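Intended use. Records like the one below are meant for learning the mapping from a protein sequence to its folded structure. Do not use them to infer anything beyond what is encoded.
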Amino acid sequence: MSKRNKQGKKQTNPWFFAMELGFFAGAIWGLIRWLLYWLRFTKVPPGFLGEPFFRHDFLVTAPGHLAGYLLFIAFSMIAAMIYVLLFRKLRGPWPGMLYGILWWSALFLGGARTFLMMPPFRLPWNTVTTEFCIFLLWGMFIGYTAAIEFTDERDREQKTKLA
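Structure written out for the chain above:
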């Protein structure tokens, strides 16, 4: 939902944009997390965000995976709202990547007892690396999409494009 300002440029409503961005970030990267769990790149179940609310036995079942996927979408919507509120004017992919690392650190280091039911250093290194990379790319998706929408990144990319 956008409107035009006095100069004729399109103005985006940050709240609707953040909700939409968070939904797609959660849907896309949640599916990728699910696929990586299914392919056994990670041992963290897709429903790990539901650990405080559901029994662990439920979260490792198919309905638990679906509940975790929906929780990841909701989590992504909240994270995108925070990013758009605080950091939407930052340019480039790096702020988003740092944002993803911040969330990975908060969930896997700070909230390990709550969400993982075990310290992250007891997880296999391929799990830790896979989860780190997913959150890195998830954060970059949120950050760079917001940068393109709320800064002149789109114009800059058009100028630097090879003819």
